[in-house]
TrEMBL record:
This is succinate dehydrogenase. The lineage of its organism: Bacteria, Pseudomonadati, Bacteroidota, Flavobacteriia, Flavobacteriales. Residues 531-669 form the Fumarate reductase/succinate dehydrogenase flavoprotein-like C-terminal domain. It catalyses: a quinone + succinate = fumarate + a quinol. Keywords: Cell membrane, Electron transport, FAD, Flavoprotein, Membrane, Oxidoreductase, Transport. It comes from Neotamlana nanhaiensis. GO terms for biological process: anaerobic respiration. SUPFAM superfamilies: FAD/NAD(P)-binding domain (SSF51905), Succinate dehydrogenase/fumarate reductase flavoprotein C-terminal domain (SSF46977), Succinate dehydrogenase/fumarate reductase flavoprotein, catalytic domain (SSF56425).
């Protein structure tokens, strides 16, 4: 099957507007005859469900949490991008488009990214109308801050709780439609398979996670909005329940999976403290606005700090290596996430890590507190302020911007980050890879759509900070509601889809057989035993740095681990009750397959690109010495994998990427 991205012809600035003018529509009376299933109720799924229901479609929404309010989108901290140019600092739709393509290391589809930039401004207006309490400046206007990889301030935020506030906005819109009867909400339900009839997605099989009942649900179209697969690493900043099952199930039914090796390692996370941990904690990238990242210049100081003989505050400015400012003077601490993460790893690998494990660098706010304190003293006409007064005034400003993040850090680490620098280290955070979709956000299966982090479409090999919330809400509020109508216009005579068909029978039997296996298998190891082993392989050999030998080893080791899993996994309890271990077993089974495809994709992509750093592909000389080296002649394509049974047997399909509006060149943030 040939990939057809269905990107409209014409100038990039006109593509979306012209396209909307010409696609098929469904009239309001006919929308009442059409059912749509939405799996996932985070920002993408919640906004899509609310908008489709508002338009008149009958929506069934599914989430495995006890409420849509608990979707992992709630954990997003720093902000949401939009090209409104409130600061008057040169931002524009084109600049957001350019920054996103460049930040993704020129591995994203231009047309999708320009559309994302184009609709971004509408998102802010929509959310303000919903009552989202964005931060405002002294005059009452919406405030902005900077994020990595850009030279403008375009990030709208609500302290360090932006995801929560945006999700509450989408949730309120959903609740309105639930009350009207246009959304039927299925909390504590997990999608375990998709049902295809005559090549079209016509429903799903879901498990009621409280009773264990297996249910059939039909629709004229199915939308997957189930988030990313970062938990393939076991330790990540994702919620422990975040999983890849919905995306992987549709992959096994014909939806191609694109660029699985593109994983984002976030530079500012609380370092791992031991093998007992079950997840990692994100510290928002917004902290890099005001925090300066450094390690000691001298190894004697590193050793003294690790042994508790010195504190970081004992070191003078001359004894500190602000390595991002040194290596990347144009962007400094605001380089993109992949660049900042690799730089932190390089310093720690060289022995300059400042905690007991040697895997931490400092994020220091002392300079910001001084700067803000002096500024506030002038504003309040305080002459000759004392050092304590400057500190107090500056701390109040930092607290207003980042207070809940500082509080969270102190509760976890038991150190006051106002008085001593935070310790941070890179961790798995976001996945740029995902289900392949065309310009309509439809997968390679008719009637099956994929939106938000679950698809691959917008971020290339590295996502810019604050763009995840932007993509999720853009897809749900402003893209899918248009494009899905083009498909559903041909479904108005179909009538209700029955669930008593051979296709539903077969899909349900597959689901029940797998559940029966897990419950009845007399193994000796827990699900977490296998998940942790998988995560270790992924981090060691498919993590921040990769090489050919390690990736080949990863593929064989994951396959062997998967074979052992199917022989020796043990799941307590039974199927007809609430059983979290049974839920995890199915999810880890899918991760064990996805992990091998991940390694296969990374092995195929023999270039350094974004967060995918191949040790064999590095700049050896010149200004970019030591930086990632892309291979545009061989790898300017989307790698879309077709399922053929074993992950090692997956077939590669290439979507060649065209760069007509942005010059394809090596990135530089120096």
């Amino acid at each position: 099957m040939a990939l057809n991205s269905k990107v409209p012809k014409g100038p990039i600035k006109d593509k979306w507007t012209t396209y909307k003018d010409k696609i098929n529509l469904v009239n309001p009376a006919n929308k009442r005859l059409i059912d749509v299933i939405v799996v996932g109720t985070g920002l993408a799924g919640g906004s899509a469900a609310a908008t489709l229901a508002e338009l008149g479609y009958n929506v069934k929404a599914f989430c495995y949490q006890d409420s849509p309010r608990r979707a992992h989108s709630i954990a997003a901290q720093g902000g949401i991008n939009a090209a409104k140019n409130y600061q008057g600092d040169g931002d524009s739709t084109y600049r957001l488009f350019y920054d996103t393509v460049k930040g993704g290391d020129y591995r994203s589809r231009e047309a999708n990214v320009y559309r994302l930039a184009e609709v971004s401004a509408n998102i802010i207006d929509q959310c303000v109308a919903q009552g989202v309490p964005f931060a405002r400046d002294y005059g009452g206007l919406l405030d902005n801050r900077s994020f990595g990889g850009v030279l403008v301030s375009r990030t709208f935020y609500a302290k360090g709780q932006t995801g929560q506030q945006l999700l509450l906005g989408a949730y309120s819109a959903m609740n309105r439609q639930i009350a009207r009867g246009k959304i039927e909400m299925f909390n504590r339900h997990e999608m375990l398979d998709v049902v295809k009839i005559d090549g079209k997605a016509r429903g799903i099989i879901a498990r009621n996670l409280i009773t264990g009942e297996i249910e059939r649900h039909s629709a004229h179209a199915v939308v997957i909005a189930s988030g990313g697969y970062g938990n393939v690493y076991f330790l990540s900043t994702n919620a422990m329940g975040s999983n890849a099952t919905a995306a992987w199930k549709i992959h096994k039914k014909g939806a191609y999976f694109a660029n699985p090796c593109y994983t984002q390692i976030h530079p500012t996370c609380i370092p791992r403290s031991g093998d007992y941990q079950s997840k990692l904690t994100l510290m928002s990238e917004s902290l890099r606005n005001d925090g300066r990242i450094w390690v000691p210049k001298h190894m004697d100081d590193v050793i003294a700090i690790r042994e508790g003989k010195k504190k970081p505050t004992d070191l003078s400015e001359d004894e500190r290596d602000y390595y991002l400012e040194r290596r990347y003077p144009a962007f400094g601490n605001l380089v993109p996430r992949d660049v900042a993460s690799r730089a932190a790893k390089e310093r720690c690998d060289a022995g300059y890590g400042v905690n007991a494990t040697g895997e931490a660098v400092y994020l220091d706010f002392a300079s910001a507190i001084q700067r803000y304190g002096k500024e506030q003293a002038k504003i309040h006409n305080i002459e000759n302020p004392s050092a304590q007064k400057i500190y107090d005034l500056g701390k109040a400003i930092v607290e207003a911007k980042y207070g809940n993040l500082f509080q969270m850090y102190e509760k976890i680490v038991d150190e006051n980050p106002y008085e001593t620098p935070m310790m941070i280290y890179p961790a798995t955070h976001y996945t740029m890879g995902g289900v392949w979709v065309d310009y309509n956000l439809m997968t390679t299966v008719d009637g099956l759509y994929c939106i938000g982090e679950a698809n691959f479409s917008d971020h290339g090999a590295n996502r810019l900070g604050a763009s995840a919330l932007m993509q999720g809400l853009a897809d749900g509020y402003f893209v899918l509601p248009y494009t899905i109508g083009d498909y559903l216009a041909n479904e108005i005579r179909t009538g209700q889809i029955p669930t008593d068909t051979p296709e539903f029978d077969e899909a349900e039997k597959e689901v029940k057989d797998r559940i029966d296996f897990f419950i009845n298998n007399e193994g000796e190891h827990s699900v977490d035993y296998y998940h942790k082993k998988l995560g270790q392989i992924m981090w060691d050999k498919c993590g921040m740095a990769r090489n050919e030998q390690g990736l080949k080893e990863a593929m064989s080791e994951i396959k062997a681990l998967r074979e052992d899993f199917w022989k020796n996994v043990k799941v307590p309890g039974n199927a007809n009750e609430m059983n979290p271990e049974l839920e995890k077993a199915g999810r880890v089974a899918d991760f064990l397959e996805l992990g091998e495809l991940f390694a296969k994709d990374a092995l195929n992509r023999n270039e350094s690109c974004g967060g995918h750093f191949r040790e064999e592909s590095v700049e050896l000389d010149g200004e970019q010495k030591g930086e990632a080296k892309r291979n545009d002649e061989a790898f300017t394509y989307v790698a879309a994998w077709e399922y053929k049974g074993e992950p090692a047997d997956a077939v590669l399909h290439k979507e060649e990427l065209e760069f007509n509006d942005i010059e394809l060149k090596q990135r530089s943030y120096k």
